DNA sequence: GCCAACGTTGGC
DNA sequence: GCCAACGTTGGC
């Protein structure tokens, strides 16, 4: 079992939206590295749901991978902001997994607390210039955040 | 709103 | 295949 971080701007899609929807396709990722990580995901993998561009930025809760990667439908939709003219149904370019809601933390764990914690040294989330919206996460870091910080 | 970091594009 | 220009991300 593997662990991951998924970032989202809460104005676009928040953990409350996921709580309401229970499950959603994680569409709109348009970065090859992030896409490749989603292809590596397995059903049941656990995910930290991270809120970016908000106050405070940080981990808002836990989600779970609910499907293997499948073609991201938004790449085919001309009206969608994430439309990709180079993608075809036969040769889709972008893939996404479904994720389901697990838990929302009472208070989000601020990025600052994650950066300051020596137990989380090396976590990709705290790395300088870490813009990737889908990131792998060490099991020990996942457990520490959920068990000790949440 | 600024800007550093990073990814992508495209001319050569 | 290099690399400058450009676009995007995302913390601050």
Structure report:
This protein has 150 residues and is an alpha+beta fold. It has one domain: ph1033 like domains (ph1033 like fold, Roll). Helices cover 21% and strands 29% of the residues. It contains four helices and eight strands; from the N terminus they run βαβαβββββαβα. The protein has helices at 15-21, 32-39, 111-116, 139-149, and strands spanning 3-8, 23-25, 46-51, 58-65, 70-71, 95-96, 98-110, 134-137. The strands form two sheets. A six-stranded mixed β-sheet has the order 2-7-4-3-1-8. A hairpin with a 6-residue loop joins β3 and β4. It is globular, with a radius of gyration of 15 Å. The mean pLDDT is 94. The structure holds a DNA duplex (12 and 12 nucleotides).
Structural domains: how many: 1
Order of helices and strands: EHEHEEEEEHEH
- What is the CATH T-level topology? ph1033 like fold
Strand percentage, roughly?
Answer: 25-35%
Helix percentage = 10-25%
Number of helices: 4
- The counted number of beta strands is 8
Structural class: alpha+beta
Q: Name the CATH superfamily classification.
A: ph1033 like domains
Q: Give the overall shape, derived from the CA principal axes.
A: globular
